TrEMBL record:
Catalytic activity: 2-phosphoglycolate + H2O = glycolate + phosphate
Molecular function as annotated in GO: magnesium ion binding; phosphoglycolate phosphatase activity
Binding site for Mg(2+): 9, 11, 173, 177
PANTHER family named among the record's database cross-references: HAD SUPERFAMILY HYDROLASE-LIKE, TYPE 3, PHOSPHOSERINE PHOSPHATASE
InterPro entries: HAD-like_sf, HAD-SF_hydro_IIB, HAD_sf, PGPase
Pfam families in the cross-refs: Hydrolase_3
Descriptive protein name: Phosphoglycolate phosphatase
Cellular component GO terms, alphabetical: cytosol
Family listed: Belongs to the archaeal SPP-like hydrolase family.
C-alpha cells in the first residue's frame, strides 16, 4: 500500500491546544516528499496563509469543502450555497441570538460563535425544508449545505491535481473530517479527536494535537506508505 499525497486538517490537528501552529508538525510536513493539502472549516485566505507559512504549494480545501484552490496563483472555486444558509440563519435568528464569524470572507457557508444550544437549534432546523445542516468543529458552529463537505472538496481537488481521492491519507480531529476520511484511502485521527472521527479512522494516534500529527506521519513512514 502506497499513498501519493496527504490531506490534513489545521486547527486541533497540526496546532497546539491554544491554536498556534505546532512547530514539530510543521517541520515534519516540510520534510515530506509527497504533496500535502490543508483542509479546514475556516476561510480560504486563512487556509492559504497557513499553507504559505508551512511552505506548501497552496492546494487547500476551505469552508468545509465549499472553497478549494490548487495553487496560490489561481482563484478559488466556490460552491453557490450561501443563499440557502442565509435562509436557515434568518429562521434560527428568531429563536437564538446568533453571532456570525468572518461574514465578509465566507462565500459558501455561515460560521457561528458557539454560545447557543446547538441540539435545540438542530431540532428546530429539522422542522424546516432547508437543504442545510449544522456541524460543530469545536471552534465554530457551521451552517452548511448538505451537498458540501471536505470529502466532496477532496474529490474535486484530487481531480485538479491529477490524482484520485483514494490516493490520499487524511489526518484530522473533528466531526467535519468524517467525509474526508471516507473519501480518502486511509484516515488517521489524532488522540484529541471527537468520537465520530475516531470511529471513522483506520488509525488513532496516542498523542494529541500537533504531536499526534507527527506521530501519524511517522506511522505512515514506518510502514513505507508514503
Amino acid at each position: 500500500m502506497k499513498f501519493k499525497a496527504i490531506v490534513v486538517d489545521i486547527d486541533g490537528t497540526i496546532t497546539c491546544e491554544n491554536r498556534e501552529l505546532h512547530l514539530g508538525a510543521v517541520k515534519k510536513i516540510r520534510s515530506l516528499k509527497v504533496p500535502v493539502v490543508l483542509a479546514t472549516g475556516n476561510i480560504l485566505c486563512y487556509a492559504r496563509t497557513t499553507s504559505k507559512l508551512i511552505g506548501l504549494d497552496g492546494a487547500v480545501i476551505a469552508e468545509n469543502g465549499g472553497a478549494i484552490t490548487v495553487r496560490y496563483d489561481l482563484n478559488g472555486t466556490f460552491e453557490g450555497s450561501l443563499e440557502e444558509c442565509e435562509k436557515a440563519f434568518s429562521f434560527l435568528s428568531g429563536h437564538f441570538k446568533l453571532t456570525k464569524l468572518d461574514p465578509f470572507y465566507r462565500k459558501t457557508e455561515i460560521a457561528l460563535r458557539r454560545d447557543f444550544d446547538l441540539k435545540k437549534a438542530i431540532n428546530l432546523l429539522e422542522t424546516q425544508n432547508f437543504d442545510v445542516e449544522m456541524v460543530d468543529t469545536k471552534y465554530a458552529i457551521h451552517i452548511k449545505s448538505t451537498r458540501i463537505n471536505k470529502g466532496v472538496g477532496l474529490e474535486k481537488l484530487a481531480e485538479m491535481m491529477g490524482l484520485e481521492a483514494a490516493d490520499f491519507v487524511a489526518i484530522g480531529d473533528s466531526a467535519n473530517d468524517v467525509e474526508l476520511f471516507e473519501a480518502a484511502g486511509f484516515g488517521i485521527a489524532v488522540a484529541n479527536g471527537d468520537e465520530k472521527i475516531k470511529e471513522a479512522a483506520n488509525y488513532v494516534t496516542d498523542a494529541s494535537f500537533g504531536e499526534g500529527a507527527v506521530e501519524a506521519i511517522e506511522f505512515l513512514e514506518s510502514n513505507g506508505w508514503i
